[in-house]
Inverse folding.
């Protein structure tokens, strides 16, 4: 790495600390979980640029929900993750929106200790060896005035696969266009658990898993 590259990295880190410093209360360290090699620096730079231009929305964990549901022979299994962080920018007609979300796998709550123990175990999320779930988008396409598709890569149990979220956006505050102050993002996606190495109990638990998010996000203001 030459001196110019080192200076560029130091500048990027300094700017990220400036824009996402601990002084921002509930939004502490928004980018910190993504800065240890999990995310390409160019993507972090894109988010930083969005923050500078007032186009970054930060997820409010306390008013958002991230979870999944899967059918089984006994009953539908549902889980909610209590700890997650991230942000998004709304894409324009060129599809250059960006979304980054990181979830603590062991924060899952299934409302039942036995079910929760099984879901966290090595046959499913294996949270001891794979403590984080990561989603990084690489495509954002508006399909109507308030719906979109977000295409990206989901990393689960150390396995990365493409996934498409179908999204509906609602303005909570601000103009009724693509410049909201506060937004509600409802997103769903389908995946096959076997593609992520979760093959156990195939005769009892469905392979198809539905991911569901209800995200409230606030526009960042410097």
């Amino acid at each position: 790495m030459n001196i110019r590259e080192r200076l560029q990295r130091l500048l990027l880190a300094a700017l990220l600390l400036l824009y996402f410093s601990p002084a921002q209360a509930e939004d502490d360290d928004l980018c910190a979980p993504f800065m240890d090699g999990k995310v390409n620096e160019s993507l972090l730079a894109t988010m930083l640029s969005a923050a500078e231009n007032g186009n970054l929305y930060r997820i409010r964990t306390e008013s958002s929900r991230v979870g999944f549901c899967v059918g089984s022979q006994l009953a539908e299994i549902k889980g909610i993750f209590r700890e997650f962080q991230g942000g998004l920018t709304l894409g324009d007609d060129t599809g250059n929106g960006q979304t980054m979300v990181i979830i603590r796998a062991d924060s899952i709550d299934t409302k039942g200790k036995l079910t929760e123990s099984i879901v966290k175990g090595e046959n499913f999320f294996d949270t001891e060896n794979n403590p984080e779930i990561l989603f990084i988008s690489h495509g954002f396409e508006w399909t109507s005035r308030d719906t979109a598709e977000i295409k990206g890569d989901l990393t689960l149990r150390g396995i990365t696969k493409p996934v498409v979220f179908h999204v509906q956006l609602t303005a909570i505050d601000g103009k009724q266009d693509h410049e909201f102050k506060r937004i509600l993002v409802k997103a769903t996606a389908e995946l096959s658990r076997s593609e992520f190495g979760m093959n156990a109990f195939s005769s009892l638990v469905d392979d198809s898993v539905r991911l569901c998010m209800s995200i409230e996000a606030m526009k960042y203001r410097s």
